[in-house]
Write a structure and sequence with these properties.
This protein has about 210 residues and is mostly helical. It has two domains: about 1-135, no CATH class; about 140-213, no CATH class. It is about 30% helix and about 5% strand. The chain has helices spanning about 30-40, 85-105, 110, 120-125, 180-190, 205-210, and strands at about 20-25, 50, 70.
Length: about 210
Protein backbone atom coordinates (compact mmCIF):
# COMPACT_ATOMS: atom_id res chain seq x y z
CA UNK A 1 0.00 0.00 0.00
CA UNK A 2 0.97 3.64 -0.31
CA UNK A 3 1.31 5.80 2.77
CA UNK A 4 -1.90 7.57 3.78
CA UNK A 5 -2.25 10.93 2.03
CA UNK A 6 -4.56 12.93 4.28
CA UNK A 7 -6.92 15.60 3.02
CA UNK A 8 -5.64 17.81 5.84
CA UNK A 9 -2.18 17.73 4.23
CA UNK A 10 -3.45 20.06 1.50
CA UNK A 11 -3.46 22.83 4.09
CA UNK A 12 -0.94 21.37 6.55
CA UNK A 13 1.64 19.28 4.63
CA UNK A 14 3.23 17.96 7.81
CA UNK A 15 -0.01 16.10 8.60
CA UNK A 16 1.22 13.20 6.48
CA UNK A 17 4.28 12.82 8.68
CA UNK A 18 2.50 12.76 12.03
CA UNK A 19 3.64 9.97 14.32
CA UNK A 20 0.04 9.37 15.39
CA UNK A 21 -3.27 10.51 13.93
CA UNK A 22 -6.75 10.72 15.48
CA UNK A 23 -9.78 10.70 13.18
CA UNK A 24 -13.52 10.84 13.67
CA UNK A 25 -13.93 13.24 16.60
CA UNK A 26 -15.89 16.05 15.02
CA UNK A 27 -17.21 17.47 18.29
CA UNK A 28 -17.37 16.77 22.03
CA UNK A 29 -20.73 15.06 21.66
CA UNK A 30 -19.16 12.40 19.42
CA UNK A 31 -16.68 11.51 22.17
CA UNK A 32 -19.40 11.46 24.84
CA UNK A 33 -21.59 9.24 22.66
CA UNK A 34 -18.75 6.75 22.28
CA UNK A 35 -18.56 6.20 26.06
CA UNK A 36 -22.33 5.94 26.35
CA UNK A 37 -22.32 3.19 23.72
CA UNK A 38 -19.52 1.35 25.51
CA UNK A 39 -21.52 1.31 28.74
CA UNK A 40 -24.37 -0.34 26.82
CA UNK A 41 -22.05 -2.84 25.14
CA UNK A 42 -22.78 -1.62 21.62
CA UNK A 43 -20.68 -0.08 18.86
CA UNK A 44 -20.72 3.71 18.45
CA UNK A 45 -22.34 4.92 15.21
CA UNK A 46 -19.03 6.14 13.74
CA UNK A 47 -15.55 4.89 14.63
CA UNK A 48 -13.05 7.20 16.31
CA UNK A 49 -9.69 6.03 15.03
CA UNK A 50 -6.18 6.26 16.44
CA UNK A 51 -3.32 5.10 14.27
CA UNK A 52 -0.01 5.51 12.54
CA UNK A 53 1.92 4.72 9.40
CA UNK A 54 5.08 3.43 11.01
CA UNK A 55 6.98 3.08 7.75
CA UNK A 56 6.92 6.87 7.35
CA UNK A 57 9.55 6.79 10.07
CA UNK A 58 11.07 3.30 9.69
CA UNK A 59 11.12 2.03 6.11
CA UNK A 60 12.52 -1.36 7.20
CA UNK A 61 9.05 -2.46 8.32
CA UNK A 62 7.85 -3.01 4.73
CA UNK A 63 9.29 -4.04 1.34
CA UNK A 64 10.88 -1.27 -0.72
CA UNK A 65 8.28 1.16 -2.03
CA UNK A 66 5.56 -0.24 0.26
CA UNK A 67 4.08 0.87 3.56
CA UNK A 68 2.38 -0.65 6.57
CA UNK A 69 -0.02 1.16 8.86
CA UNK A 70 -2.59 0.48 11.54
CA UNK A 71 -5.57 2.06 13.26
CA UNK A 72 -7.48 1.08 16.38
CA UNK A 73 -10.52 2.29 18.25
CA UNK A 74 -11.97 2.05 21.74
CA UNK A 75 -14.71 -0.60 21.77
CA UNK A 76 -16.70 -2.60 24.35
CA UNK A 77 -15.21 -5.99 25.16
CA UNK A 78 -18.55 -7.65 25.95
CA UNK A 79 -20.06 -6.75 22.59
CA UNK A 80 -23.85 -7.04 22.70
CA UNK A 81 -23.50 -8.85 26.01
CA UNK A 82 -20.94 -11.49 25.01
CA UNK A 83 -17.27 -11.11 24.10
CA UNK A 84 -17.53 -14.09 21.72
CA UNK A 85 -19.73 -11.93 19.48
CA UNK A 86 -16.51 -10.37 18.25
CA UNK A 87 -15.86 -13.50 16.18
CA UNK A 88 -18.98 -12.65 14.17
CA UNK A 89 -18.61 -8.88 14.00
CA UNK A 90 -14.88 -8.15 13.82
CA UNK A 91 -14.54 -8.12 10.02
CA UNK A 92 -17.61 -5.89 9.68
CA UNK A 93 -16.16 -3.49 12.25
CA UNK A 94 -12.78 -3.63 10.52
CA UNK A 95 -14.35 -2.70 7.20
CA UNK A 96 -16.14 0.25 8.82
CA UNK A 97 -12.83 1.40 10.29
CA UNK A 98 -11.10 1.20 6.91
CA UNK A 99 -13.95 3.12 5.28
CA UNK A 100 -13.62 5.83 7.94
CA UNK A 101 -9.87 5.99 7.32
CA UNK A 102 -10.48 6.38 3.59
CA UNK A 103 -12.69 9.39 4.32
CA UNK A 104 -9.64 11.18 5.72
CA UNK A 105 -7.05 9.65 3.35
CA UNK A 106 -8.90 8.90 0.07
CA UNK A 107 -5.86 7.35 -1.62
CA UNK A 108 -6.26 4.30 0.61
CA UNK A 109 -9.42 3.43 -1.29
CA UNK A 110 -7.34 2.02 -4.14
CA UNK A 111 -3.91 1.54 -2.57
CA UNK A 112 -4.56 -1.01 0.20
CA UNK A 113 -3.29 -4.42 -0.88
CA UNK A 114 -4.20 -6.32 2.29
CA UNK A 115 -5.82 -5.63 5.65
CA UNK A 116 -6.96 -7.63 8.65
CA UNK A 117 -8.78 -7.05 11.94
CA UNK A 118 -7.76 -8.13 15.41
CA UNK A 119 -10.61 -7.93 17.90
CA UNK A 120 -10.38 -7.40 21.67
CA UNK A 121 -11.39 -11.06 22.03
CA UNK A 122 -8.47 -12.13 19.83
CA UNK A 123 -6.11 -10.06 21.97
CA UNK A 124 -7.36 -11.59 25.22
CA UNK A 125 -7.01 -15.11 23.82
CA UNK A 126 -3.47 -14.63 22.58
CA UNK A 127 -2.11 -12.29 25.28
CA UNK A 128 -3.47 -13.22 28.73
CA UNK A 129 -1.76 -10.21 30.34
CA UNK A 130 -4.08 -7.93 28.37
CA UNK A 131 -7.25 -8.66 30.30
CA UNK A 132 -10.43 -8.17 28.28
CA UNK A 133 -8.31 -7.07 25.33
CA UNK A 134 -7.01 -3.96 27.07
CA UNK A 135 -4.10 -2.85 24.89
CA UNK A 136 -2.81 -0.50 27.59
CA UNK A 137 -1.62 -3.38 29.76
CA UNK A 138 -4.06 -2.42 32.50
CA UNK A 139 -7.03 -0.08 32.39
CA UNK A 140 -6.67 3.43 33.81
CA UNK A 141 -9.05 2.69 36.69
CA UNK A 142 -8.95 1.87 40.39
CA UNK A 143 -5.80 3.81 41.20
CA UNK A 144 -3.88 2.73 38.07
CA UNK A 145 -2.36 6.18 37.64
CA UNK A 146 1.05 7.73 38.33
CA UNK A 147 2.88 5.87 41.12
CA UNK A 148 -0.10 3.50 41.48
CA UNK A 149 0.68 1.88 38.15
CA UNK A 150 0.98 -1.10 37.78
CA UNK A 151 -0.02 -1.37 41.47
CA UNK A 152 0.56 0.48 44.71
CA UNK A 153 4.16 0.28 45.86
CA UNK A 154 5.57 -0.62 42.44
CA UNK A 155 5.22 2.68 40.62
CA UNK A 156 8.85 3.85 40.51
CA UNK A 157 10.03 1.43 37.76
CA UNK A 158 12.17 -0.51 40.24
CA UNK A 159 11.24 -4.05 41.21
CA UNK A 160 11.94 -5.85 44.47
CA UNK A 161 14.96 -7.50 42.84
CA UNK A 162 18.02 -5.19 42.71
CA UNK A 163 19.01 -4.39 39.14
CA UNK A 164 15.67 -5.48 37.66
CA UNK A 165 13.43 -2.67 36.35
CA UNK A 166 10.03 -2.39 34.73
CA UNK A 167 8.89 -0.42 31.71
CA UNK A 168 6.15 -0.78 29.14
CA UNK A 169 2.41 -0.25 29.03
CA UNK A 170 1.84 -1.50 32.57
CA UNK A 171 3.92 1.36 33.99
CA UNK A 172 3.19 5.08 34.04
CA UNK A 173 2.03 6.75 31.81
CA UNK A 174 0.76 3.61 30.06
CA UNK A 175 0.55 2.53 26.46
CA UNK A 176 -0.20 4.54 23.32
CA UNK A 177 3.11 4.42 21.47
CA UNK A 178 4.71 7.33 23.31
CA UNK A 179 7.89 5.63 24.50
CA UNK A 180 7.51 7.44 27.81
CA UNK A 181 7.53 4.34 30.08
CA UNK A 182 10.93 3.36 28.68
CA UNK A 183 12.16 6.97 28.81
CA UNK A 184 11.17 7.24 32.47
CA UNK A 185 12.60 3.83 33.39
CA UNK A 186 15.90 4.74 31.74
CA UNK A 187 16.12 7.83 33.94
CA UNK A 188 15.63 5.70 37.05
CA UNK A 189 18.29 3.18 35.95
CA UNK A 190 20.83 5.91 35.20
CA UNK A 191 20.01 7.70 38.43
CA UNK A 192 20.64 4.51 40.42
CA UNK A 193 23.97 4.14 38.63
CA UNK A 194 24.90 7.74 39.38
CA UNK A 195 25.01 8.68 35.71
CA UNK A 196 23.79 12.12 34.63
CA UNK A 197 22.56 12.03 31.03
CA UNK A 198 22.37 15.22 28.99
CA UNK A 199 18.77 14.44 28.05
CA UNK A 200 17.56 14.41 31.66
CA UNK A 201 14.74 16.92 32.11
CA UNK A 202 15.07 19.54 34.86
CA UNK A 203 13.94 18.36 38.29
CA UNK A 204 10.38 19.15 39.32
CA UNK A 205 11.73 21.47 41.99
CA UNK A 206 13.71 23.41 39.37
CA UNK A 207 10.70 23.62 37.08
CA UNK A 208 8.46 24.92 39.90
CA UNK A 209 11.06 27.50 40.88
CA UNK A 210 11.29 28.69 37.27
CA UNK A 211 7.51 29.06 37.12
CA UNK A 212 7.49 31.12 40.33
CA UNK A 213 9.96 33.70 39.01
Amino acid sequence: MSAPDYLAAKKIPSANDCFMVIMGIDDLQTFKQMFECHERGIMPPGPILYGACQTRHDATQAPNGKHTAFVWQKVPYHLYGNSDNWDRYKDKVGREMLDQWIRYAPNLGSDVEHWFTRSPRDTARELPNMGEGDTLGGAFTNGQYFDGRPFAGAGNYRTYLPGLYMCGSATHPGGNVTGLPGHNAAQVVLSDLGIKADWFPPSMEAQLEAMAR
